[in-house]
Design goal:
Length: about 230
């Protein structure tokens, strides 16, 4: 069978909960903050449900689970700073690519696709994570939460990636309603990982699909692009 020609396509990946299982290290960072406040640690499942909403949301949820009220602005900034300092130093102690992700990227690249990242993780954490996992060189463009004035669910980061890669077509690979919203706002197809952290409920539009593992994803993208 002839391989698809994806030279006019950019495949845009979300990171946390899509390409990378980062919940263990995010959990450790949150628990470091909680222990510093003499509070009990939380389980990774709690963190998975909040990934993508930022360090402040993680910390606030951790405090709520302990029966503590939300911190004021000054206190929140202090706790977020402690979280980020710890996480930066332990950014990939336990984080790994999801099974099949590397082979999927190999296949897409061999078909001519351009690969990119669009994440709501700050750039100061995104780049070290990609470097530590030794996958930075795979991506032609990397746009983080603070790379542009707007971030997901705005469609601006996705359209900016297509502008920079000079490809007329793109697809978004994510796991949350934030990723889905960004794809819809940019007018792009979207594939949602069922193994991710987001668990998007409800029906999807015509050019939106769920996928259960990375092995199936390249052919799913090919089938969708052929039908377009």
């Amino acid at each position: 069978m002839t391989a698809p020609d994806f030279h006019d396509l950019t495949v845009i990946f979300d990171l946390d909960g899509t390409l990378i299982d980062s919940a263990p290290d995010l959990t450790e960072a949150l628990n470091h903050v909680l222990r510093s406040e003499e509070l009990s640690p939380v389980e990774p499942a709690t963190v998975r449900s909040l990934v993508g909403q930022g360090a402040r949301a993680l910390i606030e949820r951790g405090l709520e689970l302990q029966g503590h009220g939300l911190p004021d602005e000054h206190e929140a900034d202090r706790l977020v700073g402690r979280f980020i300092d710890y996480y930066r130093d332990h950014i990939a102690d336990h984080s790994v690519l999801f099974p099949g992700a590397e082979a999927c990227m190999d296949t897409l690249s061999s078909w001519g696709a351009t690969l990119a990242v669009c994440t709501n993780k700050p750039e100061a954490l995104t780049l070290p994570l990609l470097d530590t996992l030794e996958i930075s060189a795979r991506f032609a463009e990397i746009i983080a939460r603070d790379s542009l004035p707007e971030h997901k669910p705005s469609g601006v980061p996705l359209t900016e990636i297509l502008h920079r890669t000079k490809t007329p077509h793109g697809v978004m690979i994510g796991d949350t309603v934030t990723d889905l919203g960004a794809a819809r706002n940019a007018g792009l197809p979207c594939f949602l990982a069922t193994f991710g952290y987001g668990h998007v409920e409800g029906p999807l539009h015509k050019k939106e699909q769920r996928f259960d593992d990375f092995e199936a994803l390249p052919q799913m993208i090919s089938d969708l692009m052929s039908a377009s």
